Amino acid sequence: MTKIVCVLYDDPIDGYPKSYARDAIPEIKVYPDGQTTPTPKAIDFIPGQMLGSVSGELGLRRYLESLGHTLVVTSDKDGENSRLDQELHDAEIVISQPFWPAYLTAERIAKAPKLKLALTAGIGSDHVDLQAAMENNITVAEITYCNSISVAEHVVMMILSLVRNYIPSYQWVVKGGWNIADCVARSYDLEGMEVGTVAAGRIGLGVLRRLKPFDVKLHYTDRHRLPTAVEQELNLTWHPNVESMVRVCDVVTINCPLHPETEHMFDEAMLAKMKRGAYIINTARGKICDRDAIAHALESGQLSGYAGDVWFPQPAPKDHPWRSMPHHGMTPHISGTSLSAQARYAAGVREVLECWFEGRPIRNEYLVVDAGKLAGVGAHSYSEGDATGGSEEAAKFKQ
Ligand code: NDP
Fold this sequence. Notes:
Low-confidence stretches: none
Order of helices and strands: EHEHEHEHEHHHEHEHEHEHEHEEHEEH
Number of helices: 14
CATH superfamily of the largest domain: NAD(P)-binding Rossmann-like Domain
Helix content: 25-40%
Number of domains: 2
CATH architecture of the largest domain: 3-Layer(aba) Sandwich
Distance between the termini: 37 Å
Mean pLDDT: 97
Structural class: alpha/beta
Strand order of the largest sheet: 2-1-3-4-5-13-14
Bound molecules: NADPH dihydro-nicotinamide-adenine-dinucleotide phosphate
Number of strands: 14
Radius of gyration: 21 Å
């Protein structure tokens, strides 16, 4: 008998949905690089329905209880004596989504002597102290590729929204105005601009491919270079480091994981190297940017706009400066949890759990930490160490 604790975001304020805007979602079987979408033996949910909130339970309850396991689902994850803290002492598996992360700090890991698997229902396991996971022989896995294209679509939407000044223009309509000059005083065409991505992994490359038809000049920097054929196909300029790329870009999109090497990569010094009036779109992780430096750069005009859906910590406190800074297009962390993405990562979680309970290996591409070291996607894309510092501030959201 295993105890599984699953931390999910709250249901909609009007209650768990009784109906949906669309009747079905397209079935995707293979990702762009040939990797198959999750292949569980069965699922107990209807793809396209809400799975990521507490009542959705990632569609796991029937399956886990049929095997005699205990499933605890909660959204109460922060602050003194949260439900998560109460349940950790005998939990073997903790499942969490980056959108509403259960920060598994070294202190929490110390309170969970039975913990064997920290499973991310999504991509990005920086909410787990990976160093502590390695030292305590906890396997960390995520559902690689499940929402990479969801995010790539969101990035393109946000680039266009900022450059064309969509959000303030929409607000003029809602306010009953027809203020064309107000709307266009900050509105430009994307065509011809220099657009660069920090990292050209699954999301970064997806963004580059989607932007190609906009006739922009595309740049990237990454620890590993893309194949020459891809560089030629997309007419990409590769940069050996972030500094070199940001000097020439009008738009920078950040698509690398958060780990000690990338934490606060966009600080005051990096922002000063950017072109005046550049835009940043960050759907990777809030902590890759220095919170106050971003707000100052928008106030001074060094940046024309900043958009994204990732914050630190999450949920962001009500007084987080990114809620009120000028020219931002922030949303809560949503890009990777569309109903379409939820179906894929819920199926991926089911696949990993089936492997775990049947003693079969978890797909290598899902592994971040295994047998005390970085493994699978973790060995390729992360670095050792911990990026959870300061996460206790998430408790401020409740105040
Ligand atoms: P991938 O693993 O496919 O890509 C990550 C890329 O980042 C790799 O190409 C890796 O390079 C590169 N990278 C790592 N460190 C650095 C560095 N120091 N400098 C430059 N490049 C670096 O992951 P995805 O593209 O699928 O996802 C990327 C991140 O996006 C996730 O880790 C997560 O934080 C975030 N994300 C956000 C979501 C949302 O809802 N907003 C949803 C999904 C993901 P290499 O492997 O070549 O070393």
